[in-house]
Amino acid sequence: MSRIVGVAGLYCAGKSLAAEILRNAGYEEIDVDALGHQAREVKAWEILEAFGTNDRRELGRIVFGDKRELRRLEGIVHPWMINEVRRRVENLKQDGKSVVVNAALLFPMGLYRLCDKVLWITATLPLRFIRARRRDSVSLHGFLQRVLSQRELYPQKVSKNVDISRVANNGNRRGFERRILDLL
Asked: How far apart are CA 80 and CA 83, in angstroms?
């Protein structure tokens, strides 16, 4: 029997590691961040018309400094991404495969509705900062900006009809893996 598991969490909490653990357990991954890159290609003309550029860095400067511009970009790419996730989930379910939907925006995009279970990955703020410095060479200021920009990602605002489990990723990988697999 196929199962759909969503993985969400804040910046540098360990979403990708959780998705990797599930892949190793036989789940097929749908990486919604990667779909975002595809959506920018598929919707390149609309993005160019709306913003005057398709350059990723330039687009980032435009949208991450202005919530209205970010919402406008999301209005172009999110519908395509949501439909693509739905299509892939259905195809994998028909093949009897279990799926992990790895998405920072799982809740804002409504993708949690496709899931039988959601794992909300957490980690302490200092540990997340250490990971961010190591992985992205981000400054404390840049880290705090990202943290503050993610306030709408929390699962508290969603329907009670979704099974959400918080999974702490503050220690060793083996313990984290065991907690995830025990929940499933």
From this structure: 5
- Residue 169 tokens, joined: 């990723």
Can you give the pTM of this predicted structure? 0.89
Give the closest residue to 29 by CA, choosing from 77, 79, 89: 89
Show the domains of the chain with their CATH numbers: 4-183 (3.40.50.300)
State the burial class of residue 84 (Cβ atoms within 10 Å of its Cβ: 0-12, 13-18, 19+). Answer: middle
Task: Find where tokens 């209205």 sit.
Answer: 68
Beta bridge partners of 6: 101, 118
Question: Tokens at residue 2, please?
Answer: 């196929």
Cβ neighbours of residue 58 under 8 Å, at least 6 residues apart? none
| Averaged pLDDT for residues 141-158 | 69
pLDDT over 90 at 152, yes or no: no
What percentage of the chain's residues is helix, strand, coil (to nearest 5)?
Answer: 60, 15, 30
Residue by residue, what is the 3-state secondary structure of 55-121? CHHHHHHHHCCCHHHHHHHHHHHHHHHHHHHHHHHHHHHHCCCCEEEECCCCCCCCHHHHCCEEEEE
Residue 142, pLDDT > 80, answer no
